[in-house]
Amino acid sequence: MSRVLTRVGALVAAVVLMFTSWSVATERRAEALDPFTGYLMAHFTGEHSTGEQIYLAHSRDGLRWTDLNNGAPVLLSTVGTRGVRDPALVRSPAGDRYWIIATDLRIANGTSWSDAANNGSKSLVVWESTDLVTWSAPRLLNVAGAISGAGNAWAPEAIYDPSSGDYVVYWATNATLNGVKKHRIYYVRTRDFRSVTSPVLYIDRGQGQGIIDTQIIESPSGVGGYRYYRASADGHITVEGSNSVLGSWTTIGNLSHMGISNGTGGGNVVEGPMWMQFNGRTEWALWLDQYATGRGYMPITSTNLGSTRNFTTRTDYALGSTRKRHGSILNLTAAEESRVLAKWGTSTPVNRIQSYNFQDRYVRHADFDVRIDPNVSPAQDAQFRVMPGLAGTGTVSFQSVNYPGYYLRHSNYDFVLAADDGSATFRADATFRQVAGLANSSWSSFQSYNHTDRYLRHYAYQLRLDPITDATGRADATFRLTG
C-alpha cells in the first residue's frame, strides 16, 4: 500500500512540475508577443580595470540612455581571460530564454593587441537566463578552435534562423587562408549555446581587406526589399541585404557620402555597427562607435534600409555617464522592462562617511589609497554609494561614485579603493556589518565581515581595519553617513 501511495505522490509531483514548467514557458511566450516598450543596451566601456565587463543601459525612446546599476558592471567574467568585450544580447523566439555572448579578451591585463589577435582565446564567454535578470555563471564556448591557425574569436553575434530552427553564431577570426592572414567572419550553428557545429567561412572581403565587426538585423516586413540587413566594418561601413541569414547577400552601399568610414575612406572613423529598430514604427538606427576620436556611439537613422542614401545623422541623443563601446541593443516588452528596472534601475543615494572625532573630515580615496580629509576636491572622491553587501545579506559595501565598480576593501588590514574582481576574497574584504557606533550609538561603526574582531577605523588619518580596545579606538571607529 505504501508503495502505491509513493507512486501516486510521485505522479502528482510530476504533474505539478510539468504544469508549473508549462505555465512559466507559456507566460514567457506570451511576453514575446507583447508590444515593445523600451530598449536595453549591453556594452563594455574601455580598457580600464573594470571596463571589459558587462554593462547595461536603458532607454524609453531609443535615443536617450540611462546607465543601469549606478553605472557599474552587472556581470563579471571569471573564466578565460577574466574580461569580456563586444557583448551581444540574444532572445529566443519564444521569449523564454536569453543569452549574452561576448569576446573573451581583457586588454587591461597588459595583453598586446598583436598577442590577442594571434594567440588569443578561441572561445566566447556565454551567460544564460530565463528572465533577463538572473544569469548563470559564465562559461566558455569554443567556436574557433577547429579553424586552422586560428588566432582569436572576436566580436560575436547571433541570430535565430527560422529556416533551420537554430541560431547562427558568427564572429571574426584571424587566420591564414589561401596564403593571406587576416580577420574573416566565420559561423557555427547551435540550439543551446553549449554545443556547436564545425565553423564555416561566412564573409571574406578578399584582396587583403580584413573584417571584424558585423551585425545583422531582421526586417520581417521586408522594407527596402530584403528581410535581413547586415552592416560590416570592412574598411568602410558596408550595408548589405538578403532574404536568408546564410543565403547570398547584395551590397546596398556604404556611408562614405556621409563622411563615415572604418578607415579606408577617412573622415569620421568608426567601428562596432549596432542595429536597433524603433519600437512601433518602421524606422531603424545604426549606432556607430567613434573609437578613433573617443566620442563613443553616435546614431544615424533611416526609414528605408534599401539605400544607404536614406540615412540621416542624429544629434538628439544622450548616452549617459559611461562611455559605451561595441555592444548590442534588445527591444524590451513591458514585462521584461519592468524586471530589468526593478533589478538595476533604482539609483542608490550618494553618501559621505563623516568621522566622529574629526567632524570636518570625511573618508576619501586618493590615488586609490583611503584616508580621512577635510575639504575634499574633487568632491566625488569622498562620495560613495552604500550598496547591499557583496558577500552576505544584512551587510553593506561602499562603491565609489566616480569609479563605479570600485569598492572600499581591506588588504593586509590597510584600506584601498579597488575594482571588484569577482572573487570571493574580494567580496568578503569589501563587506561590513553596520552596527551602532562604538563611541556614540546614534552614529555607526562598520565591523569586518571576514575578520569579525576588527572594525573600520582611522589612524593618523589613514583608514585601517583594527581590533578596538580603548576609548580612542572607539572614537576612531565611529562614523556617520551623510548626504
In brief, what are we looking at here?
InterPro entries: AbfB_ABD (IPR007934), AbfB_ABD_sf (IPR036195), GH43_arabinanases (IPR050727), Glyco_hydro_beta-prop_sf (IPR023296). The chain has two domains: 28-344, Glycosyl hydrolase domain, family 43 (Tachylectin-2, Chain A); 350-482, Trefoil (Acidic Fibroblast Growth Factor, subunit A) (Trefoil), CATH 2.80.10.
Description:
- The chain has 483 residues and is mainly β.
- It folds into two domains: 28-344, Glycosyl hydrolase domain, family 43 (Tachylectin-2, Chain A), CATH 2.115.10; 350-482, Trefoil (Acidic Fibroblast Growth Factor, subunit A).
- Helices cover 13% and strands 41% of the residues.
- The protein has five helices and 34 strands.
- It has helices spanning 2-33, 113-118, 334-344, 424-429, 471-476; strands at residues 36-44, 55-59, 65-67, 84-91, 98-104, 123-129, 139-142, 154-161, 166-177, 180-190, 200-203, 213-218, 228-233, 237-242, 250-253, 260-261, 268-269, 271-277, 284-290, 296-302, 312-313, 325-333, 350-355, 362-366, 369-373, 384-388, 396-400, 406-411, 414-419, 432-436, 444-448, 455-459, 462-466, 479-482.
- The strands form eleven sheets. The chain has a four-stranded antiparallel beta sheet with strand order 3-2-1-22.
- Strand 26 (384-388) and strand 27 form a beta hairpin.
